[in-house]
Amino acid sequence: MPEQLIIAIDGPSGSGKSSVSRAVASRLGVGYLDTGAMYRALTWWCLDQGIDLDDRDAVTDAAGDYPLAIGTDPEDPVVQVGDTDVTQAIRTPEVTAAVTKVATNTDVRPILQLAQRDLMAAIAEDTGGCVAEGRDITTVVAPDAHVRILLTASEEARLRRRSTELHGHAEAEAVAATRDSIVKRDAADATVSQFTTASDGVVTVDTSDLDFEGSVDAVLTVVTDRTGRVPR
Ligand SMILES: Nc1ncnc2c1ncn2[C@@H]1O[C@H](COP(=O)(O)OP(=O)(O)O)[C@@H](O)[C@H]1O
Ligand SMILES: Nc1ccn([C@H]2C[C@H](O)[C@@H](COP(=O)(O)OP(=O)(O)O)O2)c(=O)n1
């Protein structure tokens, strides 16, 4: 059994990465890293500072020195930039619409990827492990993780979940309003990361027909099979 348990989870928007990863980290008693929140917080910072997201160099400079403090407690992952708590602000439709410009800036990515590796090591040192989730964790940030999972779900299920989360229901109008933020963003994000099919050694967990607890259990089963670690 590895002393420090590193778990990498990738997948498209709405597959359940954040919520499932948090629950998995809690059940294993280890820390959590939401790498998407780092791209979102950088986007929020650029918008707040009046940095033009089309100015690749300016955004790259910001990536190197934005004052991010990311919470790694899976029960309460607070995100702060400077003195501002941006936990909610980074989930607004404005940031969601803009984040792809930052995430597809190929000069920004290596800077955040390096920061993510350092954070994962620090979290593992502190808590005995780390569950990190995003789009390129299994392939680029932590290809040596003890457990690597691609969390997927059908487009229909992902639209239904996000629509319910944002609008309280999944009626046709709400699903249509959600479509761009899922489908278009995934297509753009997929140009810089490989999260639509599993790379060698990455286990696919399809949650289309699972409820939330079922998804958590499916991931924990992979963890136990691979590492012998039994959740609490
Ligand atoms: N297996 C599941 N069944 C039903 N709802 C789920 C499932 N997994 C996640 N959800 C819900 O779907 C929404 C999107 O999940 P989230 O974790 O934000 O996905 P991602 O981080 O992949 O974008 C959340 O409201 C979450 O509670
Ligand atoms: N490791 C990562 C994590 C997120 N991203 C991108 C992909 C998304 O458009 C944004 C925000 O990611 P986030 O996981 O918060 O997005 P969703 O909530 O799943 O829709 O950042 C990335 O390119 N690489």
UniProtKB/TrEMBL annotation:
Which cellular compartments is it found in? Cytoplasm
Gene Ontology annotations for the cellular component aspect, listed alphabetically: cytoplasm
Q: Which GO terms describe its molecular function?
A: ATP binding; CMP kinase activity; dCMP kinase activity
The EC number(s) given in the record are: 2.7.4.25
Keywords tagged on the record:
ATP-binding, Cytoplasm, Kinase, Nucleotide-binding, Transferase
Instruction: Identify the domain of life.
Output: Bacteria
The cross-references to CDD domains, in alphabetical order and at most eight, read: CMPK
Question: In which organism is this protein found?
Answer: Phycicoccus elongatus Lp2
User: Can you name this protein?
Assistant: Cytidylate kinase
Predominant location category = cytoplasm
Q: One biological process GO term for this chain?
A: pyrimidine nucleotide metabolic process
- Identify its protein family: Belongs to the cytidylate kinase family. Type 1 subfamily.
